[in-house]
Prior knowledge:
Number of domains: 1
CATH topology: Porin
Number of helices: 7
Largest sheet: 14 strands, antiparallel, barrel
Strand content: 35-45%
Amino acid sequence: MNFTIRKTALCVAISTLFLSPNGNAQSTSGFDLSKVNTITTAVPFLRIVNDTRSGGMGDVGIAMSADANGAQLNGAKMAFIEKDFGVGLSFTPWLKSLVDDIYLANLSGYYRIKNVQTVHASLRYFSLGNIVFKDEQNNDLGTRRPQEIAVDAGYSRRFADIFSVGVTLRFIYSSIAPGTPSVTGDQIKPGIAGAGDISWLVNKTFDTKGNDKMKHQLFVGMNLSNLGSKITYTTNVTKDFIPANMGIGVGYSLHLDEKHTISAYMDVNKLLVPTPIPASQLYVNGNNGAVKPEYDKNGNGVADFREKSSVSAMFTSFADAPGGSAEEIKEVNLGVGLEYFYKKMFGVRTGYFYEDKTKGSRQFLTVGATVKYSVVALHLSYLVPTTSLRNPLDNTFRFSLNFEFNKGNKKAAADDAQNTFSEPLPKELKPKQMQLENMKRTEPKSE
Length: 447
């Protein structure tokens, strides 16, 4: 693009792409910046966690109980949701310490069908605020408001009481510099892509011998997200990857009794896109010039890793890092979280997220809380950085508001009893079944 952007917009781009500084010298802290090889993709807003409950626990959420905003990290867990239908609204300020008009908003909803199937949908809107664009001669190109949108529709189904699968389809619209000329002279246009998620979850509850009130609940899940097409903003045939990702999670909840629940969760994530080759290795003349022949086998001037298909990139992403297996391991992010709930009405939580210094260096502590009254639940989370690298969510409050309902009072009472530990009770314990059995016992026998 033959334009430059003011300082604020540049900070937005850097923070949005989760880039860390790159160079050939050592930093003042002694860390060799030449080792940095961050994976970047288009539309990185898809990886921003909009579930505030997860945001308070180091962004974990693949393997835990669901609420109205829970489908982003694992659509399969929506099959275990306790209420019949609900809606959720979340709001995340972005770069609040620099500007006040950048944010991510999410509206989601779900509907449960016959207790084993759930359909859900969501709308994510990422606003980059008002940005003044200028060309290389500092001529004003006008003020625009870049924005990105993702629309989801999903379905999940439960099998054998403890296992569920989910599928989510996604439409992506990204308008980051509408009407601005590119280096080739073409007008930059909105990028459009399609993607989907495939997920599963195991949710099993165990009794405690000698203690009828204490229950142990185990969660194990996986989510393959943003599997789909590549995206471009010009007529260029070389398209950019969207952030396809593999996430695996485990969780454990100890229900001490009907009032107190303590839970621990852990997620690991890895992007399923090619690892870039550092510029110092990729080009003939260091950071500039032509691509080296060994990285451009067809000689079209574009590095081969950028020309891979989405499917090919997904499978080769486990063994394509220039630094070998040691670098591949560094591409795995880790999140852990702890949570306490009292009567499912009041909850507090904390968590930690870790990313290697050479892959973005996002490392932060989070805290959060939940207050629920009747059908309304308010979730809050707060991020505290643990490194000198700035995070777009530094010292920022995020919140979400959930409204969840049952279809009728009788059904609500039955569901509340059934879902105390998020697992169906045996048929012989269901209220209607017990009533029928009692009627049969008291009915006089005919002679």
